[in-house]
Amino acid sequence: EAGVAQSPRYKIIEKRQSVAFWCNPISGHATLYWYQQILGQGPKLLIQFQNNGVVDDSQLPKDRFSAERLKGVDSTLKIQPAKLEDSAVYLCASSSLGVPETQYFGPGTRLLVL
Amino acid sequence: DAKTTQPPSMDCAEGRAANLPCNHSTISGNEYVYWYRQIHSQGPQYIIHGLKNNETNEMASLIITEDRKSSTLILPHATLRDTAVYYCIVRPFIKAAGNKLTFGGGTRVLVKP
């Protein structure tokens, strides 16, 4: 079965520019997660969707970050405007509602803000 | 507010067993212990999870102490490809979605030839 797909793999932008990341989860997975991983740290959850509804976005900086999951499949995460501290790897993960609830991660998008 | 404590790094020899400790002294009765690993430039990968019994799969074994306050992940025959950061995570085990993974700093494991 195909894994979680993410694009682009790398992105370099200047501060105050906008950027968007795309994620395609494993087919049939109802739950989708976006994590931010700053260099040297573990991933931190930004937002969680179940189908196309938001379950948890308590850690999402809503003044600059937005995410959507139209039709409950693909998802996009946007940053506008970007700050230097947004430089990180953005990971997408998905899971089914089965037991155990195991999350499968994509390769991530590495963002550098100059 | 990490619920687990792991050593920041450890080395092990190729072909030998690697024993990775994790302390989770505040674990509650409905929380499971999960292990993930992250190889360089890849996303985290699920390894194993357990509640109170020891567990084994094709990747590793998980030994949980009787009081559940600590656990050990065992890689029986470490290879160079096992070099990664290993994360120990405690989380409630529920059917419905809604439980994020809270990652700590993990243990950076270097397997040496």
Task: Characterise the protein shown here.
Chain A has strands at 5-7, 10-13, 19-24, 31-37, 44-50, 53-56, 65-68, 75-79, 88-95, 104-105, 109-113. Helices cover 0% and strands 48% of the residues of chain A. Chain A contains no helices and 11 strands. In chain A, a hairpin with an 8-residue loop joins strand 9 (88-95) and strand 10 (104-105). Chain A is mostly beta strands and 114 residues long. In chain A, the strands form 2 sheets. In chain A, strands 2, 4, 5, 6, 9, 10 and 11 form a 7-stranded mixed beta sheet that branches. In chain A, strands 1-3-8-7 form a 4-stranded antiparallel beta sheet, with no helix packed on it. With 113 residues, chain B is mostly beta strands. Chain B contains no helices and 9 strands. In chain B, the strands form 2 sheets. In chain B, strands 1-9-8-3-4 form a 5-stranded mixed beta sheet, with no helix packed on it. Chain B has a 4-stranded antiparallel beta sheet with strand order 2-7-6-5, with no helix packed on it. In chain B, a hairpin with a 5-residue loop joins strand 6 and strand 7 (70-75). Chain B is globular, with a radius of gyration of 14 Å. The model of chain B has no long low-confidence stretch (mean pLDDT 91). The interface between A and B is medium-sized, with 27 and 24 residues.
